[in-house]
Amino acid sequence: MPYSCQHGGTCINSTCVCSRGYKGSSCENESLEILYLRSSKAVFREGNEVLFESEITDNSNFTVQWSRDGVIISGILSRYSITSSAKANGTFLHQLRISSVYERDEGNWSIMASNGVTVVNKGIIIRVLPKLVLLMIPQYDLSIETKENFTLQCVVVNPGSLINLTSGSLIWVKDGKPLLTGSIFTISTTQTSTILNKASAEISDSGNYFCLHSTYPDPLNVSIYVNIIGPESVEILLFRISDSISREGKSVWLETEIYEIIDLTVQWFHNGNLITNSSLRYEIKSYTTENDTLRNVLNVPNVLQQDDGDWNITASNGKTTESMSVYLRVLPRLVLQMMPPNNISVESKKSINLSCVVTNPESLFNLSGGGLFWQKDGKKISPDSGFNITTTDTSTTLMKSSAEVDDSGTYLCAHSSYPEPIYVSIYINITEPSSGYNVTSGKMFTTLRKPSAVLEDSGTYACSHTASPESVQVTVYVNVTNSVLPRLVLQMMPPNNLSIESKESINLLCVVTNPESLFNLSGGGLFWQKDGKKISPDSGFNITTTDTSTTLNKLSAEEGDTGTYSCSHSAYPDPINVSLYINVTEPKSVEILSFKSSSSVLREGKSLRFESEIAFDPALIVQWFHNGKLINNSSKYTITSSITSNGTSVHVLQIFNVLLQDEGEWNITASNGKTSETKSIRIQVLEKLKLQMTPQYDFSIQRGEGIVLGCVVINPGSLQNLIGGSLIWQKDGQKILSGFHINTTNTSTQLRKSSSEIDDSGSYSCSHSAYPDPINVSINVNVTEPEPIEILSLKINKPLLIEGEAAWFESEIMNKSGLIVQWSHNGNLITDALSRFTLTSSTTANKTSLYVLNISSVVLQDEGEWNITATNGLSTASRGIKVQVFPRISLSLTPKDDLSIQTGEVIQLQCEALYTDTPAYSTGIKLNWKKDGKDISSDPSFSVSEAGTTTTLYKSSAELTDSGRYSCSHSAYSNPEDVSVYINVTLSDKDKPCPCQHGGTCINSTCVCPVGYQGRYCEDEYLEILSYKSSNSVIREEKSVWFQAEIVGPVGFSVQWSRNGDLISSTASRYVMTSSKTANGKTLHVLTITNVLQRDEGYWTVEALTSSKTEARNLTVKVLPRLLLQLAPQYDFSIKTGESINLRCVVINPKSLTGLSDGNLVWKKDGVYILSDFGFNISTTNVSSTLEKELAYLGDAGRFSCSHSTYPDPVSVSIAISVTKPEQIRCADDKIEKIMWKSTIAGTTKKESCPENQKGTATRYCNFQGFWESPDLINCTDVSLVNANEELDSIIADGTTKNVDEAVNNTLVKMKNLTSQRSELSAGDISSSLDILEKIVNVTNMTSANVEKEAFFAVVDNVLSTNNSKSWTAVSDKTEKDASSLLKNMDRMSEVVLKKENITTSKFKGKNFEVSVDKTKVDEKGIVFPEKTEKTPNDTTTDTEEYSTFLELPKQTNKIEKPITYVAVIYKTISDILPTDSGSRTEENSNEVKEGKEKKKKEFVNSEILSLTTQTDLGILSPPLNLAFQHKHENESADLQAVCVSWDFITNKWSEEGCKVNSTNNKRTVCQCNHLTNFAILMRPYTPVRI
């Protein structure tokens, strides 16, 4: 008797075999069992998706809960998706999907199942690695000026995120292109940080700079935009002087006004010598005006002779400089000399002889009028005063032959118009003489005797009687004459020998003290001699001579002027002269006795003191310099000086807050205007430690949320010289030792805690344990209890909705941080991705949040329960509302289509309302009629009748004004949908006044024609080009030019443009053709050439065409070629110190200089013009220039550029030269790949020209050990391919159609020959071939050119050769191209072929692929390709017969009207070079498959590739396409499964969509696909699930 088994159990051999979910001897008890719990991976990164799966058995209802570390997980949280489904075997599959895992998700995940009796659970532990967090320093976009230095630093804030990465590093990318070490940037990279530096920024350095990790699996990066702008230009607005001609002793001021900009430095110069405030003779002031300009004033209170010359003001901001100058002429102070020089005493009756001479006649320059004059006792001596006065411009004599006692007094000589009271004076005392006479008298006589008469005895002698009452006397005149003339007496001023320093002036005066000695001399005059040789006027001396005096002057004495100077008279008979010796010596040398600093190495923020002792010199000027820049007293620098007790001067420069830029060479320069001395000290400044905390600001979190703090050393250089120590964390002043995860490197540290507690609140600080100063950064963290979420309200605009209406839900929720809000309908989540729904949120005045869900158009399915759920991950709240939706009233209009009637005919429209049984419809609500949007229900010209739910609009006789759109709508809706029809009312034949054509208007029985028509009834077309002009008739290459034509013509006329007879197509990329209407109805047609090329020269034609007329006009344009410069050598290079520099710059096309009247080639180094005094030898002709230097030194390193000084565009060529010390590691000269690689610095990439018959640039890396790596020739391409590429570019750019067939097919023949002749193509040739094939397809598609298919297919076949496998790998690795571009171009070529009307069938069979172009009627006969086997696709027999790969398209059920052409392709070798999802298959993968090694497998293509394209889109194939693939490698591994795939050109990956495996074994797989494209077999790793 069988055993009684319950609940569907089966009795076998008297034993119950229970159904799933039951147990017991009779299956009487329910069973609940979790079969397994597994996750998609064990270790995840933040942001990854996680999938947990669990299979559970039970016979009845049971509940399931998911939890993490004991906390229950709810499915309403947006990150979690919980699903369950029944399996065919009676178990239930439960899944928990985490869309984006966080670090706090790390831990023990468990599933618990309960049926009310039994509770079971299982757990699994996952690890979550933190998401990579990068910090860019600076954090915000940067704008700097050219020449400035900029440094970017990128730091991994959380080094723990790099766990499990076996390779890779931080890299820099600019505008999408990687920046490599050895480029124009300096890059320094460690495991967790990288620094990018550019010493001198250029405009081209502007761009977006990205930092990312090369092997991090997610595309995480930080970026910053660096904007490089030209430096702010210095502009001197004015420069003036109070007097351009001044006299010694006067005051002069110079004033300048300059736009005030950052880092402005202003310096004054006199004759090239710097002027500073340290000189007591000058006063320098500066101040800001009310116009925000800087006014600088230099005051010279007491002008001296040496102030004569050029005065310059130079303003600079370190990047641009401007200078202006004025010339100051200083006239010497008037110097008068009196002869005799000292007071004298003269006896009465004797003569007075005074002379006064201007010793420096140039002092009288610019005086108008006036002259020398004499005074006696303050009164001017007039000519009639008894004195004889003789005056010239520069001398005057005062003579009186017989002095009298009254002539005693002070005699003064001065100049009447000289502006200052300068004079010389002498006192003359006239005394009574002892007469020298003997008088003998008697009563009646008297006798007067003198033994020896003198000249003064001449005169009238009188004799009278003293007692006579009458004045009776007798007189006699005695004349005493000279028997001998006096000897010449000369006097020299100064009278004694003198010693002067070079640069001082020489002033000598020679005077004849007794002019009478020159009596009776004929001719001759005073003259000067030096060392016995006469001084000529052109000897550098200034000589001024009168009859009785001469002056000798020289402004600036030299050592060679030392000697004996004598003065004599050339006609005097005796050799009488006066002389003196002048010794000209070198000026006294300046001597710096000492120069020292308080420290040579110090940190930022410290103070620094320089002190120098200098031998005293009254004319001493002291200047301080830092790295060549003058330092003045400022808020940063304090400069003082003092005199010591031993007579030396001590000069001190104090810096109270040293900065990084203070590092370098500090100099003190002392000068006395004649000699100078400089001493220097080098200072090293260590950076001050800078720490940055992430996040930067205090924050508050709720208990249970994670704490992640990062601390980074922004400037690792600040840790230099520190011994030991590291970054440490403190909380509230106490070092953190436990409770947190801390990851620390040399320059960064991270503090983490996955779940915070209340007592974690506090102040967290980061510092360095060994840094000498107390520097730290801190942040306050406040941990609070999580607050409950409160949904204050949920409402809808109305609970009863009508289909098609808009509706909205509104909910007000108390604000909470981290709040996530979701809307759902009947349990289904609502998102913005659904087009009908719009989700918005805003903050109210009450600081609550208002969440709104808008439904643009309600549908019937919207009826049901609507819920809003709010959560912050810690607490959750939800509210719901029920909604009813009723169907919308629908309207039907008769007639349905637009109609046209004539005047007088009937208008009748009928509108019916459907679905009127809805509650939305009620009586009293009616249908409305409108015409062109205006209500016409009450228009008396129309009649409206209603019957039930139908309304009729009627008019018995239509008029022209009745034309318009008529609509019917229902008044039940605020936004009613309507139905409408357009009625066009035209004139009936009997109403037409005259038959005007082409839109003419009949006025008074006459047709007024529109623009472009003429004739009685406007029946004739009128076409004319009114004007045709261009923006320029002569233009340079790469500029833009436009042609404009104003045309009048009929509707639909066309315009064509052509160049030299070649038609310009609208597909041309270089040309923009536009047209627009003018106000008078004419059309304006414009052709713009955005980038003029040489081939654009010639005549340009605009042609207007109609079906019967043509009008054309021509213009001629001359195109000057763009300047092309070539530099030799061509690429950057390096040399050692002491080697020579030889650069040559050549104008390749001299014609480009046409129209330039002057100018020549010029050189720059680092943007600064190279002048002749830079140590370089420059030789220049009209079209070439050479720059040479025999011995280079380190300072010659830089970028040298060559340009033309007057060429209108900034065209230049440049080269960077590195000059290194001889001991620096280098790679030696080496020749390989027919290229001579010149020596270069280790760690740099060298560029050289490609080998002969190739174009492009080859590169080769010199590693840090000084050894060359293999050359990279990816950019080297055969010359013929380059030329073909350029020719195709011109066709595409110009859009010309002439000779396109010839050009394309010639290119294909060349490519076929080139690719056939070579056993292996280079990577550069393959890369170029892919470009050319793509362009041939583009040109063929654009111009409908007839391409030689055989040649095209032959090139493809050659490129796919297995001999090229290494080159294909290089192309894939180093460019963005791969074999998929070949697939795409073959597909596109197939489409082009299939577009042709007359298609000829053809076949091509190559070594690497086959093509068939054929025709068939696919609904009658299928397609089989290739036709080489009798096997059917479903035949999977495993005998030893060779399997073939082919496709079969069965007869299609869809009817096709006519035969269609198709293109079928089989690719035999391309599978080895096509990428898979996980990358290309490597040789190692292949060996693994062959040998069956137990290693981790990767995807790879294991078949040839089949392709089918048809002329007509067949849509979804019915029946599907059958494809049979022979495996390239037998599949012996159970871990690999064959997958049928097609190539997706959008994602550039294999896709399984639309394909399935029909049958498979280890040698062969058969697929079925429902669409047409490229197909293959992909081997994919597979791990069976073990229960």
> Roughly how much helix do the residues carry, as a percent range?
under 10%
Instruction: Indicate the mean pLDDT.
Output: 84
Strand content: over 45%
Net shape: elongated
Q: Report the biggest beta sheet as strand number plus sense, adding barrel if it closes.
A: 8 strands, antiparallel
Report the span from N to C terminus: 36 Å
Please provide the count of β strands. 132
Low-confidence segments, given as residue ranges, are: 1436-1442, 1478-1496
Distinct helical segment count: 7
Element layout with pairings:
Layout: E1 10-12, E2 15-17, E3 22-23, E4 29-30, E5 33-39, E6 43-45, E7 50-57, E8 63-68, E9 71-73, E10 80-86, E11 92-98, E12 107-114, E13 119-129, E14 134-137, E15 142-145, E16 150-156, E17 170-174, E18 177-179, E19 186-189, E20 193-198, E21 207-213, E22 221-229, E23 236-241, E24 245-247, E25 252-259, E26 265-270, E27 273-275, E28 283-288, E29 293-300, E30 309-316, E31 321-331, E32 336-339, E33 344-347, E34 352-358, E35 372-376, E36 379-380, E37 388-391, E38 395-400, E39 409-415, E40 423-431, E41 438-441, E42 446-449, E43 459-464, E44 473-478, E45 490-493, E46 498-501, E47 506-512, E48 526-530, E49 533-534, E50 542-545, E51 549-554, E52 563-569, E53 577-585, E54 592-597, E55 601-603, E56 608-614, E57 621-626, E58 629-631, E59 637-643, E60 649-655, E61 664-671, E62 676-686, E63 691-694, E64 699-702, E65 707-713, E66 727-731, E67 734-735, E68 741-744, E69 748-753, E70 762-768, E71 776-784, E72 791-796, E73 800-802, E74 807-814, E75 820-825, E76 828-830, E77 837-843, E78 848-855, E79 864-871, E80 876-886, ...
